[in-house]
Amino acid sequence: MTTIYIAEDQEMLNSALSAILELENDFNIVGNATDGKSALSQTTALKPDVAILDIEMPYLSGLEVAQQLRILKQDIKIVILTTFARKKYFEAAVNAQVDAYLLKDSPTDKLVETINKILDGQTIYDSNLVSSILTASKNPLTPQELKIMKEFSQGKTTQEIAESVFLSNGTVRNYISSILSKTGTHSRIEALNIAKKNNWID
Amino acid sequence: MTTIYIAEDQEMLNSALSAILELENDFNIVGNATDGKSALSQTTALKPDVAILDIEMPYLSGLEVAQQLRILKQDIKIVILTTFARKKYFEAAVNAQVDAYLLKDSPTDKLVETINKILDGQTIYDSNLVSSILTASKNPLTPQELKIMKEFSQGKTTQEIAESVFLSNGTVRNYISSILSKTGTHSRIEALNIAKKNNWID
DNA sequence: TAACTGATATGACAAATGTCATAAGAATAA
DNA sequence: TTATTCTTATGACATTTGTCATATCAGTTA
């Protein structure tokens, strides 16, 4: 019998998954949460064989929960289950040595199958995810430019950005000018729209 | 026996709901789709008793599907199932005379319960939704201001907006100035951030 | 009716934004 | 070693943006 813990903040999916996995003869749902903090404390207490973790949850993200569980060296298989095919998320998941990374854009059969495979020692990364990351138009912005973009995405003015990143006003304007040119735009808002569409920023 | 059709673009939830509702003795899932267009053509063909419609789907939104079904005067109970507690969506749903509006932030039990109630002739609006709409800080922008805001959210410049809405450049600037003052901000980006947080725009 | 709000407009002004040329040091790649 | 890229910076310039005062006209509300 395999014990499973589910952390998913969307109630509908959370309860639906619990019900479905319970139907499998060899699975037993031992608990579930809708936020990361409860998920972490309960998985450490209940020690299930498998934890299914959503990424975007209140208090602690599923990725942070996974990291903690690895730091605690708990013997647990981790499945990250998310809507987002974001490179950043995927990289963090790989670093946390999760056993599977699955998109919610897969049917439940796939989840069951995945759980069985990771119990077998395999590591499963959603193939749609991997290909979508590879085909994603890659970010042409330098780290510094990205940093500046995140600043102005909050609505900060050039001067505020300059102060917050310890650069001169002119340098910040140069970076922005470069961002605009790389995105083929002529204003911060347009640049932000492009960056969001391409998942360069949230 | 009640026949049910499910339209939900997130595969995981779609298949999970199908499986769960199938478990109920008196429910029979007769079809499901992950986009609005198939949902509309199949519900008109299969004539299920109940259609569960997600809002945000490719090609046609669940709300549009609901509208069409009402125009066609098909005898069908409609449940809108969505993540979003947006006033606009809710109003559109009420106008389309849907039988229930449920948030994905409710457990599956609630869905089953809701389906049974609407089959009984009741109309069910998620109580969390209704209260969240009532408490939502209401939009202080006039229709015209909102229109202008949508324009600049696309990154348009004052001049472009002026041309697209047939106003003078100065008038557009006045509107924007008024928007900034109402949102307590000093730049378009800040104003957009506030508006998004409060769901005044998408 | 009087007061208010909304839509529209102009003109003037200060501040912010975006563009360019130019430069220099550091790091990295060829 | 040379070429390229990244980070940082300045100065100058044109344009855009945001603010204010002011005004007219049409509705709506008190």
From TrEMBL, chains A, B:
Residues 134-199 form the HTH luxR-type domain. Keywords: DNA-binding, Phosphoprotein, Transcription, Transcription regulation. The keyword Lipid biosynthesis does not apply. CDD domains: LuxR_C_like (cd06170). It comes from the Bacteria. SUPFAM superfamilies: C-terminal effector domain of the bipartite response regulators (SSF46894), CheY-like (SSF52172). Residues 3-119 form the Response regulatory domain. One of its GO terms (molecular function) is DNA binding. Pfam families: GerE, Response_reg. SMART domains: HTH_LUXR, REC. This is Two-component response regulator. The modification 4-aspartylphosphate is found at D54. GO terms for biological process: phosphorelay signal transduction system; regulation of DNA-templated transcription.
